[in-house]
Amino acid sequence: xxxxxxxxxxxxxxxxxxxxxxxxxxxxxxxxxxxxxxxxxxxxxxxxxxxxxxxxxxxxxxxxxxxxxxxxxxxxxxxxxxxxxxxxxxxxxxxxxx
Length: 98
Prior knowledge:
98 residues, mainly alpha, elongated
C-alpha cells in the first residue's frame, strides 16, 4: 500500500464504490444518448462525470498499491472519456490532463 493514511479496507471500499459509480455513469450516459442523441449537451456532461470517476479510480488504485498492470488497464477508458468530454472550448487545463 502506497498511502499509509488509510487501511486496506478503506481502499477496497473506495475502489468498489468508484467502479459502481463508473458503471452507473456509463448506463445513464447511454440512456441519454438513446433518448436525446449524441449531440445533446447532457451526453458531454456524462462523459465528464466518467472522466472524473476514472481519474478517481486511478488514484485509488495507485494509492492502494495495486499492480501497475491493473492501473495501466484504465488508460484506454480514461483517454476515451477525455476525448469525448473535451472540446476546443473546454479550456487549457482540461487538455493538459491528458
